[in-house]
Automatic annotation (TrEMBL):
It comes from the Eukaryota. Residues 86-114 are annotated as: Disordered. It comes from Papaver atlanticum. This is Uncharacterized protein.
Length: 114
């Protein structure tokens, strides 16, 4: 199977090569009208093949895009879970510190009064 990252380059190079072949056949048929009928079946077959290859590249890239979107959604969800957990821990720690500070201040006040 072709790697997903090389598909855009592959599709581009296939398209470019097909276009060059098409232009060559087109130019030869223009210069010689008798050749137009001779190469039209060949051009049609070639363009059908190109269409199939490009459609396969499109399907593969769409599949890869969907997979990456699902992965992004999962990672974003996990990120929010982690940051939410950190916020809760920070709130608990600050509440514990403030209650410890209040308790310490009360004990200092009691000591000073005695």
């Amino acid at each position: 199977m072709i790697k997903a990252l090389s598909l855009p380059r592959l599709a581009s190079s296939i398209y470019h090569a097909s276009w060059l072949k098409f232009r060559t056949l087109q130019e030869s048929s223009i210069s010689n009208p008798e050749m137009e009928g001779k190469y039209s079946a060949q051009m049609f077959k070639h363009l059908e093949k190109q269409s199939e290859v490009l459609m396969e590249a499109y399907r593969s890239m769409s599949h890869e895009l969907h997979r990456l979107q699902v992965e992004e959604e999962m990672l974003t969800h996990k990120f929010y879970e982690v940051t939410y957990g950190q916020d809760l821990n920070q709130k608990r720690n600050s509440e514990q510190r403030s209650s410890a500070d209040v308790g310490e201040a009360e004990s200092d006040t009691v000591r000073k009064q005695s």
